[in-house]
Each structure stands twice: as structure tokens, then as C-alpha cells.
Amino acid sequence: MATQLLCMCCGAQPQPQPQAAPFMRFPFWNSVHPKNPTSVVRVQAEAADMNMNSIPHVLSVAGSDSGGGAGIQADLKTCAARRVYCSTVITAVTAQNTAGVQGLNILPEDFVADQLHSVLSDMHVHVVKTGMLPSLNIVKVLCQTLRKFPIKALVVDPVMISTSGDVLVGPSVLAGFLEELLPMTDIVTPNIKEASVLLGGVPLKSVSDMRTAAKLIHDLGPRNVLVKGGDLPNSLDAIDVFFDGEEFYELCSPRVNTRNSHGTGCTLASCIAAELAKGSSMLSAVKSSCRLNRFNPNDLLLYAVTDSAMNRKWGRSIAEAVKAAVEGGATIVQLREKDAETRDFLEAAKVCLEICHSYGVPLLINDRIDVALACDADGVHVGQSDMPARLARTLLGPEKIIGVSCKTPEQAHQAWIDGADYIGCGGVYPTNTKANNRTIGLEGLKEVCLASTLPVVAIGGIGLSNAREVMKLGAPNLNGVAVVSALFDRECILTETRNLHALVS
Ligand SMILES: Nc1ncnc2c1ncn2[C@@H]1O[C@H](COP(=O)(O)OP(=O)(O)O)[C@@H](O)[C@H]1O
Ligand SMILES: Cc1ncc(COP(=O)(O)O)c(N)n1
Ligand SMILES: [Mg+2]
């Protein structure tokens, strides 16, 4: 059946290409734009052409969450964010919201089998990711189908109880996991409660228990195990334990103080599936999904911001200034080069990136997203009148660090919504590096810190004389101080940075 589709840009009708015989069922996919072959139609044709095997493809076999936070909905969003195609086989429909699960309707296993067959017999699926498998028969049907259709990897999130505490999958399913599914699994990702159920009820109370559990679950057949520690009591960080049969890895990220963690497990498992579909190794898929390579708020402790006018005044190159700052103990560097030529700036940024990385220090670029992308910097810092953080996130992808300058709780809230990683808050004290900049004082800083969900670095007129009083404020989320003149408008950057580092740590 040929659907009449028109080009989105000019309304022209695509012309079918007769030589594209194997795909005749989908004439639109095999058509080129009558006027411009590289147009929207071609892009859509390529994106839609799963048979070409070129588009990374995850099949999510999971339940629907009407609230959109977990299940199929989380999987679709995660795969889209990681730029991977996601098809879906729905196993159950839940009436669910942030408060809990109000209703559950399990689909008949025959219909789950039909959905599996429709997708797997037609498209080239690289990775299958499972979430809620609510009946033993559904587990059996899935295993039977997977034996018929070879895939690159099987990711199993053994969903049993929702974050809200509602039972999503009864104990009868356990036999299917142990006997059939786990032995064919490439990675299983239980949370601590699920790990305990898989092991017959042993409680997990510490990271050491999680390691033992990972080893025991590995003995049940899956090639890799990730025990997630989001719900581990009394732990400051969120720690997940990964075991590949030989080595243990503790993947540690700062715990976000929130009760809104519904869907975290589904998101993590589909992220791993998406990275595997793109061709990553298991370890790097897991690391990049646990965001190990990303931002650590402790890096904000001593944040050095370069200034071209000061470097000129003291006859230093940007690279010389940056080297002295990181040697002295700067924990993150931002290049703020307002008047450099683009090409010179790019070359300098590449050199600075090498210097910073040799000290394990992240490098951010002020405002210039193009330069950050071109030199593959760790991220950007944007002001309220620069590129909006939401667009910066779209342009830079999920991995890069994004900071936003904020003076008010409202701006801090917006930065969080827009997907930023931290906020720079100030000017705390009067400064001459920014003309007409309103000073918010320690009170203003405290107000923003209290309201912020993101880590905060204080900025504006901070140096040796007042850095300690800023840190002593003890405001929640305040992770450090950002400094311009007190480092770069001085004769010896190295000494100043060392002294300041001693003061704030
Ligand atoms: N409050 C939190 N702060 C930071 N990371 C978290 C938090 N809660 C969970 N995570 C992370 O989210 C992922 C999912 O873990 P978890 O919530 O334990 O799984 P599930 O959603 O299956 O219960 C893990 O990487 C875990 O470390
Ligand atoms: C349909 C469905 N699938 C999975 C989960 C588990 O997600 P979480 O454990 O993060 O609440 C859920 N709540 N709903
Ligand atoms: Mg969770």
C-alpha cells in the first residue's frame, strides 16, 4: 500500500525508484526528491530504512507507563536522546503516575509474540532491551523468539517493583528469569531489591554486599552484571557495581537529592542498550550510561576563568596562563576570550585542552559553542544573553558540561530545566571584569544556592581576601569559587592559585 506523502519542505511528490526492488513495500523510503536528492525526503528515507542495517536500533520489550517517566516511554526518550532508533513491544499497560501504580493490564503472551515477530522479522534490530516482563509465559515467548532471531546483545532490566513500591511483576516470573532469560543475557541491571530477589532474598546493605551479589548473579548465566545502588541506604554517592566476570568496577556519581527517581533504572538500561547498538564495548556503554566521564560537582572547587586583557597586560599567552593555573591547583578552567580571532582562539583552546587533560582538569569554553565543538572541549559556560542552555544542550549532546550564569532563583530553576550541569552565581562582590554587573552579595548567593537543584560556583570579585568567607557561608549546593583577576591579574599565577587552593580546600 503506497501512502501519498509530500515533501515537508516544498510539498513536492517523491518519485519512486524502480531499481529499489527489495523495498517495494515502502515506496516512500526508496524515493528521492524530484528536485533535490539531498533534501528532507532523502534524510527521512535513510532514517526510516532499517533494512539498510546502518541505523543503530534498539527493540524495547517493556510496559507502558501512562505517566511517561518509566517503561516504554522512558526507553523511547532515552534512545532518541542517544540518537538510536527504538521499536517497541508492549507487554503491559499501567495506569501510573509519580505517586504510584493505580492499575495494570497484562497483554496476552500471543499478542506479545505477534509484536515481537512483526518487528524482528522485518527490521534489523541490534539490541533487545527488556523492562517489565509481567508473566512467565511472556518471558518464555520472548526467549523462544530471541532464539529464532539473532541479535548483537540482550540487555535485561529485571523490573519487579516500581520506585513507588508497587509490585509490577509477581514471583512466578522468577523461574523464567533463572532458567531461560538470564543464561542468554549480555547484561542484567538489577537494583538492590531486584538483586536480592534474584538471589532468593538475601538483603543488600553495602557496596561490599553489592559486589558479592554481582558475582553470584553472574553465576546465574548473564555475561555482565550491573547492580544499581540508587536505593542503597546511607550512601552519599550513587554507586553502581559492574562485574564482567573478571573485574569489578564501582561507578560512582554524586547523589542528586531528590525523590523523583522514578524511571532511572529504565533510562539507564536503555542508555546501555543504545550505546551497545552504536557499537560500544560493554564497559564503555556502561560507563557512558552511568555518566562516569562527565561532570563532577567537586571540580567547581577552584574554577579559573581566563581573561584576554589580563594576559595581554602581563605579556602571557592563554596557554601559559592556563598551565600555571592548573599547576597551582585550579580544578576546572574556563577560557573567556572575548576579543580573540576565531582561528587563534581555536588553536589556543586545543593547546589548553591538552594541558588541562594532562592534569585531569576539565576545560570549558565561554559562550563559543562552535569553538567548544571544534576542539572537543569538555563543555561550555553560557550567560543569560548567550545561546540558551537548552539549545546548547541540543547542540552539544548529553555528555558535555554546561554551566549557566544565574543571579536569581528563577534563572537557576530554568538552568536546571534546560539541562545545565551547574550554575555560576554572582557577582558576589563588585568587580571590574564585568561592566554594569549587578552585585548580589552573600545574601543573594545564599538565596540562589538554597533554591538551586544544580551545584553552584560563586563568582565576582572573589580572591584571597574573601574566598574563605564565601565558602564559610556553608550554603547548600555551593561547591566552590570562580576567580578571574585574583589569579590572572597577578604577577605569579602559580603562587596565587596555590594560595587560593589552600584557602578553599
Ligand atoms: N538520587 C540519585 N542520584 C544520582 N543517581 C541516582 C539516584 N538514584 C538513582 N541513581 C542512579 O540511577 C541509576 C538507576 O538506579 P536505581 O534507581 O537504583 O534503579 P531502579 O530505577 O531500577 O530502582 C543508577 O545508575 C543509580 O546510581
Ligand atoms: C511500566 C513500568 N516499567 C518499569 C517501571 C520501573 O521503573 P522504576 O523502578 O524506575 O519506577 C515502572 N515503574 N513502570
Ligand atoms: Mg530508580
Mind explaining what this structure looks like?
Belongs to the thiamine-phosphate synthase family. Keywords: ATP-binding, Chloroplast, Kinase, Magnesium, Metal-binding, Multifunctional enzyme, Nucleotide-binding, Plastid, Thiamine biosynthesis, Transferase, Transit peptide. Its cofactor is Mg(2+). The chain has 505 residues and is of the alpha/beta class. The chain folds into 3 domains: 19-48, no CATH class; 56-289, Ribokinase (UDP-N-acetylmuramoyl-L-alanine:D-glutamate ligase); 297-504, Aldolase class I (TIM Barrel). It is 37% helix and 19% strand. The chain contains 19 helices and 19 strands. The strands form 3 sheets. A 9-stranded mixed beta sheet has the order 5-4-3-6-7-8-9-10-11, with helices on both faces. Helix 16 (441-451) links the parallel strand 17 and strand 18. The longest helix has 17 residues, at 342-358. Residues 1-47 have low confidence and may be disordered. Residues 163, 230, 261, 264-265 line the site of magnesium ion.
How many strands, which pairing sense, and closed or not: the largest β-sheet?
9 strands, mixed
Q: What average pLDDT do the residues reach?
A: 87
Give the DSSP E fraction (strand runs of 2 or more residues).
Answer: 15-25%
Structural class: alpha/beta
Spell out the CATH superfamily of the largest domain: Ribokinase
Please report the first level of CATH classification, the CATH class of the largest domain. Alpha Beta
Q: What global shape is seen? A: elongated
- How many domains? The number is 3
Strand order of the largest sheet: 5-4-3-6-7-8-9-10-11
Bound molecules: adenosine-5'-diphosphate, (4-amino-2-methylpyrimidin-5-yl)methyl dihydrogen phosphate, magnesium ion
The CATH topology of the largest domain corresponds to UDP-N-acetylmuramoyl-L-alanine:D-glutamate ligase
Rounded radius of gyration (Å): 26 Å
Q: Count the strands?
A: 19
What is the distance, rounded to the nearest whole angstrom, between the alpha carbons of the first and last residues?
Answer: 68 Å
Give the helix level as a range of percent.
25-40%
Counting DSSP H or I runs of 4 or more residues, the number of helices is: 19
Architecture of the largest domain, according to CATH? Answer: 3-Layer(aba) Sandwich
The low-confidence parts are 1-47
Protein name: Thiamine biosynthetic bifunctional enzyme TH1, chloroplastic isoform C
EC number: 2.5.1.3, 2.7.1.49
Subcellular location: Plastid, Chloroplast
Enzyme class: transferase
